[in-house]
Structure formats: C-alpha cells, structure tokens
Design goal:
The chain contains eight helices and nine strands. By secondary structure, it is α/β, with parallel strands linked by helices. Strands 1-2-4-5-6-7-8-9 form an eight-stranded parallel β-barrel, surrounded by six helices. α7 links the parallel β7 and β8. α4 packs parallel to α5. The radius of gyration is 18 Å and the shape is globular. The protein binds SN-glycerol-3-phosphate and magnesium ion. The site of SN-glycerol-3-phosphate (G3P) has 10 residues, from β2.
C-alpha cells in the first residue's frame, strides 16, 4: 500500500540547497516536486524543529546538542551559510513553519521523526500530536490525504501510534530485520522504508506480497532507480532532484522537459 507520490525530494531540495530549510523546500518546488522528506527533532523546550543532526557542527556552526537549546535560540541559528553565501541567514525552521509552507504549496510530506538520542518517546509523541492538529479535518479521509510519519526509532513510532493512531506510519530501517512483518504489524505501519543498498528482489517481493508499501532511501542514480522500481518498490527519495525528476518512471517522465 503506497497511496503517495513515487519520487520524493530528500531533505527538501536534496543536494541543491541547504537541507531541511525553507529554502530547500522552495528549491524542491522549483524543480517540480510536490513531495518532500525532512527530519524533525525536539528543542529543549519541546518544540519540533526541522534538522537532521542532533549536534551542531555540520549544517549549523558551533558545538553542542540541539536538545540543550530552546526553539527561540535554535531558530535564530544559521542553517544556510555552510552551503553557500547566498543562503547566509537561512534559519533552522520549526516543524510548523515547514508544514505550513508545504500545505500552502500542496506538497506531500514524509515527516521523519529523528529524535535526539534519549528523547525517542517524547519526540514521537509531540511530532505525531502536532501533525494530527495540522491535519485534524483530514483524518477521516484516506491515507493519501495525510503525511507519512517515519522513523528509525521503533519507540518513537510506538509513541506516535498512541498519540495519533490515524496518522500513517512507516518503519525506517537500514537493514531489513528478520521480524519485519511482525514489527510492521505491531506499529500498525503501512510501509517499510529502507536503504535501497540492502534491498533484494526476494525481500521486495515478500514485503509487497504481505500488503505493505515499500519505500527506499536515498536513490541518486537513474539506473538504480529504474532497477528498484522494477522490483516493485513503490517510491523513493532522492538527493539528485536535478537528475531524477518528479515524474521519473512514469510515462510523463519520459518526455523531456523542453518538449512539455
Ligand atoms: O527518511 C529517509 C532518509 O532520510 C533516512 O536517512 O539519515 O537521510 O535521515 P537520513
Ligand atoms: Mg531523513
């Protein structure tokens, strides 16, 4: 089951913009993407913010942990300068800011719950609650009208399940565990989201035959994308939104942009 877009822009704009910022979401949109993946963790005061690393140093200058700073302090930090001069001043956004941007622009969201270690339960709960509030009037609709919450943290997804049972969940794994079927059932998940590097055709077949959606991260080569789609993979996220367009793999995707 995968009622969602097939090709998803990873961290907003892949490698073309500073990840997990509003500028990244805008970049994905400019490339025609109406589907994004981004990462969410909690500030010290429990506000969901959009960031990948639990510590400063790579995309945000400085040292220390995200969990030691309030949302007000975090959203004053620069998350764009590392990427290029034109992005200086691009802030760490809150989840609410990114979700609002996506909802206004009709962008589907794969919200990855990325807890700072030690905050799994709380992060799953808060992010699911916040998502539920944003989509309150759509909860009675089909899953296609809703975002997908995913996480590598089983615990975070269990908390999300308790907080917002009607918001769909996908279990993220690097390597597919032996007991994947049982875990997906326990979480009431609709999909397995996995590293394409560790997927095999028999595993793909088994997951699809069990009735689950199958999503892969992070596929950056068109030939590999074609290969895994032929195995029955429903969708994947990509950093190379310049090479793999939003209609890749569909009839429309074979028409060159200039001919459209
Ligand atoms: O959600 C898919 C993918 O983003 C998982 O890995 O580390 O890029 O968040 P990561
Ligand atoms: Mg992610």
């Amino acid at each position: 089951m995968w009622p969602y877009p097939k090709i998803v822009a990873h961290r907003g704009g892949g490698v073309l913009a500073p990840e997990n910022t509003i500028a990244a979401m805008r970049c994905g949109l400019t490339h025609g993407f109406h589907a994004v993946e981004f990462d969410v963790m909690l500030s010290k005061d429990g506000v969901p913010i959009v960031m990948h690393d639990p510590d400063f140093g790579r995309t945000v200058a400085g040292e220390g942990s995200v969990a030691d700073f309030t949302a007000q302090e975090l959203t004053a930090r620069d998350a764009g300068a590392w990427f290029g001069e034109e992005y200086i001043g691009e802030p760490i956004p809150t989840f609410e800011q990114v979700a609002t941007f996506c909802m206004h622009n009709n962008i589907w969201m794969n919200i990855e719950i990325k807890p700072v270690p030690g905050f799994e339960d709380q992060t799953g709960w808060v992010v699911a609650q916040a998502t539920k509030r944003l989509f309150e009037n759509k909860l009675a609709y089909t899953p296609a009208a809703l975002p997908l919450l995913s996480s590598f943290s089983f615990e975070a997804l269990q908390a999300a399940q308790l907080a917002a049972p009607d918001v769909p969940r996908g279990f993220l794994v690097d390597e597919i565990p032996q007991d994947w079927n049982e875990r997906l059932h326990t979480l009431g998940a609709i999909s397995l989201n996995t590293n394409h590097k560790n997927l095999t055709p028999p595993l793909a077949r088994a997951i699809k035959e069990a009735g689950f959606g199958l999503f892969c991260y992070t596929v950056n080569e068109p030939a590999r994308a074609t290969e895994i789609l032929s195995w029955g993979v429903d969708g994947f996220c990509t950093d190379r939104i310049d090479l793999i367009g939003p209609h890749f793999g569909s009839a429309e995707g074979h028409i060159s942009p200039s001919a459209r």
